[in-house]
Design goal:
Blueprint: H1 5-8, E1 11-19, E2 40-45, H2 59-65, E3 70-76, H3 95-107, E4 111-112, E5 115-116, E6 119-122, E7 132-140, E8 143-146, E9 149-160, E10 164-169, E11 172-176, E12 183-189, H4 196-212, E13 223-230, E14 237-242, H5 247-273, E15 283-284, H6 295-302, E16 306-312, H7 329-341, E17 347-348, H8 359-369, E18 376-382, H9 384-403, E19 408-412, E20 418-422, E21 430-432, E22 439-440, H10 443-451, H11 457-468, H12 472-480, H13 484-493, H14 498-514, H15 524-535, H16 544-554, H17 559-565, H18 573-586, H19 596-608, H20 614-633
Parallel strand pairs: 3-11, 14-19
Antiparallel strand pairs: 1-12, 1-13, 2-3, 4-7, 5-22, 6-7, 6-21, 7-9, 8-9, 9-12, 10-11, 13-14, 15-16, 16-18, 17-18, 19-20
Helix pairs in contact: 4-5, 7-9, 11-12, 12-14, 13-15, 14-16, 15-16, 18-20, 19-20
């Protein structure tokens, strides 16, 4: 079914997050580049929700606090300090980060604030040791233009990035603090985007402006798109963590189809039930599964767990219905159970018998629960406390299914689908930061920034194309893949051909990635060394792809040693010329043949392939043949 987004009333708002490439973190002197050479330490915290200044509790904070997790933090003393540990007050707001954020704001036509006031945003999932994230609005308004249509900017915010999640298990979560505190810019648009395609283009337009500052970090984990998506009669759903620009289209489509299905389910449930669900009543059905062959249930029972069941009247057939790949009410129920109670999953009678549960066990279960043909039963096997909490979450989500689509926060997956992670936060999560004074933004300072605004990426593309004789398409690929900086560095430090460098950084790396090579292991230092060796003549251009493939596959740090191990050691050109002279002399009998050079090139390439550029070999050979035949004629 093709979706008519205009008829459906689709509205999308973007929140584009990008790490800034500053010398230090936002509120301390620690570097923003990870340095793992320092002393390693770890410590443990427990966080809980706290009331706002208005005496209210934030729903998202309550959700996280109910888990009562032990939070283990790992840190390296060269990448984090007492500020990250929340044992020292924050230092002055990073002026370099403020300047980058204001530069981006001016490029988008936004209006900077008169004073920057830092706020605290309650976050108790453990991603910040203090239990809150520091954030501040630096500008409001502005726009980006997509296909001639203005997309309004609501706010431009500067905040500290969160700690990196290392591992999570029941009762324990582990974070690394190296990323915590890195300056992060957030650009939020108004919810006026009307199609997935427009969302992709708007995100790219904002990303292009941020990259035009020349002060944003590149690479995995440095950029994230969050989407606020709604349709008519649906709900406002925040989807977090869309890493790839190309995934936005899939995420929006999936979310629209999910909400449409939930609205349809709601109408059918209302017709079947007429009223609401009966009171929450979990039932212990462990005795029905004492001899079960289900591995999941058996494992739980052997660990002292119970099997708990919940009757959902009139839900039969609706839980497993899947009108679009991954869109099922059953997936919604399971996600709530996992998020709120951290159970492995749930069973429901729409999918049984199966998973080792027999038809006889299902019949006994339905009879014991008093389930009619139109009713469904949900099962959870775990320690009793967790099983009951999981069923409570299932019950609350089932009740929401009667009302339609719940407002919630979801996470994006790599296939474009989304999954529930927590309730949407409320206004109660924000309150002033009392440790940092306001920072005034003067007109003189803004005028100075305006006088030295960077060129846009369109102008950059035009300049690079003209300066290096590259096609606009090739330059645009360099820009889109965020490799302009390394391109310029390679040209500045080597004598490599601009066309060869640009083609390698775009087409060759893309081709290697398609072949399964992890090109992400080719850091900028490795790429620079590869082209330095190429410029020195250590290996030929024909072997460039092979060298890159081996460097990526083996994760090497010493490219010169790698090239040597591949048998691509440097060749003395005088030795090449002597060998060409010998080759020409041995074959002087057919030098007059017009195919002589072509025939002899085969011998040369066998000897020097990968070590001497083929064009150089052809040039030396052609000169020697011409000289020999000229002398013979004379």
């Amino acid at each position: 079914m093709v979706l008519d987004y205009e008829r459906l009333g689709l509205k999308v708002g973007l929140e584009i997050h990008r790490q800034l490439n500053t010398a230090r973190k936002l509120f301390c002197p620690c570097p923003t580049e990870y340095d793992e050479s320092g002393e390693k330490i770890s410590f443990t915290r427990f966080l809980r929700e706290a009331q706002s200044e208005l005496g209210e509790l934030d729903p998202a904070a309550v959700f996280e606090s109910r888990k009562r997790k032990k939070i283990v933090y790992r840190m390296d003393r060269r990448s984090a300090c007492l500020v990250e540990l929340d044992e020292e007050p924050p230092h002055t707001l990073n002026g370099e980060a403020v300047e980058i954020a204001l530069t981006a704001a001016l490029l988008m036509g936004s209006t900077p604030v008169d004073e920057i006031h830092v706020m605290r945003k309650i976050v108790v999932d453990g991603s910040n040791t203090a239990g809150f994230q520091r954030t501040c609005v630096v500008a409001t308004g502005g726009r980006v233009v997509v296909d001639g249509e203005a997309i309004p900017i609501q706010t431009i915010t500067l905040e500290e990035d969160a700690a990196r999640l290392v591992e999570s298990s029941r009762g324990v979560v582990e974070y690394d603090l190296s990323r915590l505190g890195i300056p992060l810019i957030e650009v939020a648009t108004a919810p006026v985007i009307k199609s997935p395609e427009q969302a992709v283009k708007a995100a790219k337009a904002i990303g292009d402006i941020l990259r035009a500052t020349g002060k944003v970090k590149r690479g995995l984990g440095t950029v994230r798109q969050d989407l606020n998506i709604s349709i008519r009669d649906g709900a406002l759903v925040e989807v977090k963590g869309v890493q790839e620009l190309e995934l936005i289209d899939d995420v929006v489509e999936y979310e629209v189809r999910r909400q449409l299905h939930l609205l349809d389910v709601s109408k059918r449930l209302a017709a079947r039930l007429g009223g609401g669900l009966p009171a929450f009543n979990p039932v212990d059905v462990t005795h029905l599964f004492t001899d079960t062959k289900s591995k999941v249930i058996r494992r739980s029972l052997d660990a002292g767990g119970r099997v708990m069941a919940l009757l959902l009247p009139a839900f039969a057939g609706l839980i497993s219905e899947e009108p679009f790949k991954g869109v099922r009410l059953g997936a919604e129920l399971a996600a709530y159970a996992k998020a709120w109670a951290e159970v492995e999953g749930i069973f429901h009678t729409d999918e049984l018998p199966g998973y080792g549960i027999t038809s006889e066990e299902v019949a006994s279960l339905r009879k014991y629960m008093g389930a009619g043909d139109a009713d469904a039963v949900v099962l959870v096997a775990d320690l009793e406390h967790y099983a009951v909490e999981a069923l409570r979450a299932v019950y609350e989500r089932a009740a929401e299914a009667l009302r339609g689509v719940p407002n919630e926060t979801r996470a994006a997956r790599q296939d474009g689908s989304t999954v529930y992670i927590r309730p949407r936060p409320g206004a109660a999560r924000m309150y002033p930061e009392t440790d940092i004074p306001p920072i005034p933004i003067t007109e003189n300072y803004l005028e100075e920034l305006k006088s030295r605004l960077p060129e846009t990426l369109d102008r950059l593309a035009e300049r690079l194309s003209r300066q290096y004789g590259l096609s606009r398409q090739l330059v645009q690929e360099l820009i889109d893949r965020e490799r302009v900086e390394i391109f310029m560095e390679i040209l500045g430090k080597t004598s490599a051909s601009p066309t060869v460098v640009a083609t390698t950084l775009t087409e060759t790396l893309t081709s290697l990635a398609r072949d399964g090579v992890d090109v992400g292991r080719l850091g900028e230092r490795v790429l620079l060394e590869v082209f330095q060796l190429l410029s020195e003549g250590v290996f030929s251009k024909e072997m460039l792809r092979d060298v890159l493939a081996r460097a990526a596959s083996e994760g090497v740090s010493d490219v010169r040693s790698l090239v040597s191990s591949m048998g691509l050691a440097a060749v003395d050109l005088e030795e090449v010329r002597r060998y060409v002279d010998e080759l020409v002399e041995r074959n002087r009998s057919f030098l007059g043949d017009e195919r002589a050079v072509k025939r002899l090139m085969g011998d040369l390439m066998k000897r020097y392939r990968g070590r001497v550029d083929g064009r150089l070999l052809h040039q030396i050979l052609s000169e020697r043949v011409a000289a020999r035949t000229g002398a013979a004629q004379g």
